[in-house]
Specification:
Length: about 100
């Protein structure tokens, strides 16, 4: 089973940081009852950050992950572009002013 990613990198890092801080806060809470509901919530945030999948975002059809397509031009492309620019500038200088 493949889980599709719908959480971006920055969003995942924020979820991991906030979830870990929340779990530490829950664990260090003394003198009162342990906040189980908050601990589960913060634990879910850590897991969502690690797996980069959020079921609520999936239900709403939201993606915070951006798709990037990197296109690398070959050196020949840049050289041919320079040559054509040079040829155009040469032809402008070689033209007779009366033309």
């Amino acid at each position: 089973m493949s889980v599709k990613k719908n959480v971006g990198t920055v969003d995942a890092l924020i979820r991991i940081f906030v979830g870990t801080a929340g779990l530490i806060w829950c664990a260090t809470r003394t003198g009162r009852r342990f906040p189980w509901l908050l601990a589960v919530f913060f634990g879910m945030k850590v897991v969502e950050g690690i797996t980069r999948y959020c079921p609520i975002l999936d239900l709403l059809g939201i993606k915070t992950q951006k798709t990037r397509i990197w296109v690398v031009k070959s050196p020949e492309h840049w050289l041919s572009r320079e040559r054509s620019t040079m040829e155009k500038s040469k032809s402008n200088y070689l033209k007779h002013p009366s033309e």
